Amino acid sequence: MCVVAGPEFGDREGHVLIISKALCGLHSSGLRWSERLVDVLREMGFFTSHCEKDIWMRNKGDHYVYIAVCVDDLMIASKDPDLVIKMLLEKCQFKLKGTGPTKFHLGCDFFRDEE
Fold first, then answer.
1. Is residue 11 domain-resident?
2. Within a domain: residue 19?
3. pLDDT tens-place string over residues 48-93
4. Domain count along the chain
């Protein structure tokens, strides 16, 4: 597979580029992403819920860490979600966007009740 480079490629604009490996847009992309995420979560000590395979959890002793997965969207519930995010970013090399307190997720508005 090849593509002609556009202006975003700077000096290489107009050159024919050969794509040796691409995941986005392939029929198997979703499956490959899911397989990679499963491997990473298991390596981090997470296991799936018996009731819902897309809810992952890990026992931290004084609390559980939960990760809800919907395709490529993750929602993390933990006393220290930044630790999980840091591991996914640095150790596992995931590119995450929209990290921080959830305000909107999968079509729903969220807010935190301080009480």
1. no
2. no
3. 999 888 899 988 888 888 988 877 777 888 888 778 777 777 777 7
4. 1
Query: Does residue 41 form part of some domain?
Result: yes
Residues 6 or more apart whose Cβ sits within 8 Å of residue 97? none
Indicate whether 68 belongs to any domain. Answer: yes
In whole angstroms, how large is the CA radius of gyration of the chain? 18
Residue 2's pLDDT band, with cuts at 50, 70 and 90, is confident
What's at 28, amino acid-wise? S
What is the residue range of 68's domain?
Answer: 29-108
How open is the CA angle 27-99-22, to the nearest 5 degrees? 25
Give the Cα separation of 17 and 9 in Å (integer). Answer: 10
- If 0-12 CB within 10 Å is exposed, 13-18 middle and 19+ buried, where does residue 13 land? exposed
Query: What whole-number percentage of the chain has pLDDT above 70?
Result: 83
Cβ count near 90 (within 10 Å): 9
DSSP summary character for residue 78: S
Q: Do residues 78 and 84 lie in contact, with contact meaning Cβ atoms separated by under 8 Å?
A: yes
